[in-house]
Amino acid sequence: MVTINENYGKLRGNYLFSEIARRVAAYGQAHPEQRIIRLGIGDVTQPLAPAVIDALNRAVAEMGTAEGFRGYGPEQGYEFLREAIVKEDYGKRGCDVSADEIFISDGAKCDVGNIQEIFGQDNLVAVCDPVYPVYVDTSVMAGRTGDFNLRTGSYDKLVYMPCTEENGFVPALPDRTPDLIYLCFPNNPTGAAITKDALQEWVDYANRNGSVILYDAAYEAYIAREEIPHSIYECSGARTCAIEMRSFSKNAGFTGLRLGFTVVPKELVRGGVSLRDLWARRHGTKYNGAPYIVQRAGEAVYSKEGKAQLKEQISVYQENARVIREGLLDAGYTVYGGIDAPYIWLKTPAGTTSWQFFDQLLERVQVVGTPGEGFGAHGEGYFRLTAFGTPENTKEALERIRKL
């Protein structure tokens, strides 16, 4: 008899972004005359850069010839892309990363959850709170969280690391020692960044305790301050304790193309076993790589033309973040983030829950954001806005919000 993975029954009833979509669709059906501005989901809005389009076209043309056609690609991804990442990204930041430690995939979101498959069932997982829901939900699906406690608003077996105004939304080292530690900087949803010294403390902590840091650096392209690290491998000792996930979705607009990668250093060993070798086996067995043409597009991101064009695109989103941040501050809101990240984290008005604020924005001014409660217990009372809109929509949304 077929049985079901009972851990799925432990997931909370409504996935955050599905619930947002449901409410927006219902409002749109009831009020078709209203123009809704969406600043809720972190999807990009600018078209692909010319250098990327040129690379895609060349790759498609190659695939139409006998000599240029390619079938299944290398399990780790094409060497041309992995070498470009090493040379133009990690190498220029002084990070010791080699091409055979890079695993190309169809996006960081998949790797964030799939990476758990190489670890034992009894590993204790730590997450920031608030946090991107995928870290928690995939841990639930893997059976590492226990049941959801309605009284505390948390899972019994997860280690929650509060990110609050008091600690600048950068968590303190946990009291209980976790085996797996999810960190995301620049952070989604709070927009907080971490200094190199503070990140070094986490690396030292993990090495002392034998923990492994799962580091999500999807938003590193939005870092504006020089003192903020772009990679955990800028820290001494990170190669023996950290796995890093990256995405082309936010730095190059590949949300529709799907491309990302994970770095697993050869020195990262637990229980006498190389985690790089385990991930290579998993990656090869359940290959979730990107097509050749998409990997050629990824290579173009690191070209001279691609870098210049994407820097210009990112600056548009950075300006959007500045407009939202400064406009909300001027309107009297308490606001965080928006400097080294494309997310703005604002306090909801006194006495207003994050979902109530969501409904107010949707029903009164037709602006969609993301309720902080959906990111965890410490997200209640806050609200996320994304800078990934068009400049015109961003400015209009801000003017609408100021009218509340």
Automatic annotation (TrEMBL):
Pyridoxal 5'-phosphate binds at residues 72, 108-109, 132, 188, 219, 247-249, 258, 288. Homodimer. CDD domains: AAT_like. Residues 36-401 form the Aminotransferase class I/classII large domain. It comes from the Bacteria. It catalyses: (2S,6S)-2,6-diaminopimelate + 2-oxoglutarate = (S)-2,3,4,5-tetrahydrodipicolinate + L-glutamate + H2O + H(+). The keyword Transferase applies. This is LL-diaminopimelate aminotransferase. Pathway: Amino-acid biosynthesis; L-lysine biosynthesis via DAP pathway; LL-2,6-diaminopimelate from (S)-tetrahydrodipicolinate (aminotransferase route): step 1/1. Belongs to the class-I pyridoxal-phosphate-dependent aminotransferase family. LL-diaminopimelate aminotransferase subfamily. Its EC number is 2.6.1.83. SUPFAM superfamilies: PLP-dependent transferases. GO terms for molecular function: L,L-diaminopimelate aminotransferase activity; pyridoxal phosphate binding. Substrate binds at residues 15, 42, 109, 132, 188, 288, 384. Its cofactor is pyridoxal 5'-phosphate. Involved in the synthesis of meso-diaminopimelate (m-DAP or DL-DAP), required for both lysine and peptidoglycan biosynthesis. Catalyzes the direct conversion of tetrahydrodipicolinate to LL-diaminopimelate. GO terms for biological process: lysine biosynthetic process via diaminopimelate, diaminopimelate-aminotransferase pathway. It comes from Candidatus Eisenbergiella merdigallinarum. The modification N6-(pyridoxal phosphate)lysine is found at residue 250. Keywords: Aminotransferase, Pyridoxal phosphate, Transferase.
